[in-house]
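The instructor's notes for this session suggest beginning with a concrete chain rather than abstract definitions. Hand out the sequence below and ask the class to guess, before any prediction is shown, which regions might be ordered.
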Amino acid sequence: MEKFRTKFARDSLVAAKSSVDSRHLHLQNLLYEVMHLKKEVIKCLQFKSKDEMIELVSEAEFYKEAPETISRPEITRNNPHQLRLARLEWELMQRKQLAALCDELTENKKVVASNIEMKQTRLDNLAPQLRSILEASKPLQESLGLPLDKIRQEHQKASLLPSPLYVLYAKASAYRDAYDSTLLVKVEGDEDEAKRTNNQDGLQESDSDPETQPESIAEETLVHKKRHHRLSREARQEEKRSKLLQIHPLHVKIVITLKNETRLTLQFYYMIHLKVVTVESKLETEDLGGVSAGDMLVSESILRELYPGDLGLESPNPANQYQLSRHSLGSFSSLGLGIPYRWAQRMAGLHFVSPDVNEQKLVSRELAQDCVESVLKEIKRRVKARIDLRAEIRQLESGNLPILISTTDPIPQKISTSLHRFTTLTWRNYSNYVITPAFFEQKLVSSLDIFYEAVLRRGSSELVAKIAIKPDYPKIAPVFSVSISPMVPASADIIRDIEREVNVMWTKSPTLTAQIQRLRACFDIYLETESMAPKEKIFFHPVRGRTRARPYKYLPLGGGIFTHR
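After discussion, reveal the predicted structure:
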């Protein structure tokens, strides 16, 4: 019985375990099924149909345009699912209609393209015949002096110029044809690069509104922005700087020819984004020798301050100052892009508002006349004046002072003081040699002038003159600053009288040689009135007044006498 009971208990235990295992397995199956159903529910909730990416027409427009066989308002107004299906069906029908229209337009396009191709073939066959006719007419053009081909090519190249340079080219060409046949006006540069630049500018202007851009251009812009995003900050800044300083590939070249094989070449460039015209110049002339005279014919020095205050150091466009400071580019003159003279802007038809009221009034008066004609005449006058000045300085360097000088003011023929030395001088040496501070205070001299030093001697007495020649010589006379050797007693009043006599007391603006001749005569008078040299000049009273003024005024009466002013 014990064995029986033990067996019965074991069998009951096994049966209970089997039932528990069966129920546990069934529970696991149910939990797995629940988990699977949850995943399916989440997948259904997260499902995105392709129709959701389609931009359908609004419901109001759908009910207005779609036929009732598709819209079925009695069903779709209360059933969102049926409404969605109906809208998709209407979209499909519209797209089929558009596809059919596209196929029809494509066929029409092919027909038009074939017609264009036929006409282009006809034109291509006509071009060689026209070229042969033009080639056959060249001898006739040469015999009649009509370079039509050259003019046509020049005009075709000029049509690629930016507007300011085209205005300058047109005005300069008209002046050449009307007044000066020796003036050379031409367009130089890369035509293909100019066409690409003009096309890029046209695209930038037309695509300024990103919403109106075509899809392909918008994609290219997006790719361009992504590429820019990958670039480093320094590379982007450098690219912006180079774009800001971009110069148009074509430029206008004007060659002014004067006597003695002297040629001044002016090249006008246009800054595309800064919107100003810059000038580069080169002067070619025969070498007459001389050490100091060479500085006279530097092209930048000739064009400097062609008009009052026009130094070309800063851009006349006020916006450039902010553009350059934004990209940390410094001043315009440090960029090496040419010199933006204001007269060059006026020649190109560019007018900017000046912060200086007086300067704006001066520009307004100058615009009343033909700026191209006046500028070219002023440049010619400046070059001729510099050539004459170079000849003067060359004579002064060699010590050959002319006896007869063409001037309205009389100058004595016999002068005992001689020119011992005439050399060039730097601005630093001149500024360190401060004899007359009033010259600096009243801005009579500046670093833009050309400086020389003249040493005059008579016996053991010596006079040193520091000379500042203005850019607009001889309209503006050179400024002399005088000092006398310490061995010769001379007060400040004596120095001031000599400087006034040489710098101011002229009926008409004098030449440099005339001023030096008068300075020699004044030094003779001073030494003779001080009894430091034998008396050779005729004067009645050696000194007069409390300042002990000398008789520096020369009168060509009789043999020539000197009187007080």
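Then share the key points. Strands lie at 184-189, 250-257, 263-270, 277-284, 418-425, 450-458, 461-469, 479-484, 553-555, 561-563. The chain has a mean pLDDT of 83.
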